[in-house]
Amino acid sequence: MAAQTILFDFTLDKDKTADAQQRQEVAKILRNELEHVFPQLELAYSMESEENGYFSVLHENKDTIITCRIFQHGLLTLNVEYYLPDGKEPIISFDTIRTLELILRQKLDSDRSKYLPPIKRGGYIDIYMTSSDERIIEYDIDTLVYETRSPFQKIQIMHSKTLGNMLILDELQNIAESDLIYTETLMGRGIENYEGKEICILGGGDGALLYELLKENPKHVVMLEIDELVMQACNKHLNSICGDVLEKRKTDQYEIIVGDCVEYMKKFIAEGRKFDYVFGDLTDIPISGAPIGECWDFIRTIFEHSFKVLKPDGKYLTHGNGTSCIESLELFEEQLGLLKPKVKFTTTKAFVPSFMEEWLFYQVTFA
Fold this sequence. Notes:
Blueprint: E1 2-11, H1 20-37, E2 41-49, E3 53-60, E4 64-70, E5 75-84, H2 94-107, E6 112-121, E7 128-130, E8 136-138, E9 141-149, E10 154-160, E11 164-169, E12 172-176, H3 180-187, E13 198-203, H4 208-214, E14 220-225, H5 228-237, H6 239-242, E15 254-258, H7 261-271, E16 275-281, H8 294-306, E17 310-322, H9 326-337, E18 343-352, E19 357-366
Parallel strand pairs: 13-14, 13-16, 14-15, 16-17
Antiparallel strand pairs: 1-5, 1-6, 2-3, 3-4, 4-5, 7-8, 9-10, 10-11, 11-12, 17-19, 18-19
Helix pairs in contact: 1-2, 3-4, 7-8
């Protein structure tokens, strides 16, 4: 069950909406055509303003609410909203939406028009998330597989018809069964040689990185993950990407330590423990205009400690963000440039299916 919101917009010659009388004529045409679809349509409220144009609210049986705005600049927007219970058919079909748009475009002599299929709001399953640069993405999610809240975050496993099961943390998509390319690009499969190497993973609670790294025959991998419930959820519902590595916390090949990675890196520094590779599989680069705030402080802390546990010829590998987030990626690279001793970096790109966008990955070494 959810509220269905259908959006239309039309661009008219601004001379047709320049004054109140002209806008009233446009509103009359609009209502006449709407009544073919909603025969019991009634006007509930209307308002006219020289500065803001025309606004009206119409309804059919007080169930379907239609709002209309006619701006003096030649833009007309139309929103149709109603509540759709589970198991019920939509009151207006896709074909009817398309036909209504075409008729209104012709009747209004519109230069351009656009409609959006129903936006589903307030449903039990949230099918909308955002890209890294905050564009709306609609997923074909059909099932909420698992949901809980840990001391650190909200954890959900949702099933997508095309992407498989998806791990969602605090309403943000993290990884799906379709996303092997993410893990392989992060680890530089086919480029990096992990055989006989000592590796530290910061985060990585979905287990996918650990699972793939173990196939490369490393000497030992230690994974530092703070959220036990994330690992339990992924072990049960995402084992196609993590195998059985989350079944145990310690084997001859790897150890999973549940705790704050910063505190454990401090311990490694005190012990003089060093790694050939450190993976930062943690927080995404923040979308901000300046490198300030809690997330940026955390990133700097991770940098500071990661390079202290890295061997002189070691490598720090991490994900960045979507390639469209140019400003934030530049801020991230500026922070790398401030590190002492100096570091250098390369980047790789990959289109990640469940992110529905291209992402940037970093490979950082001492200069």
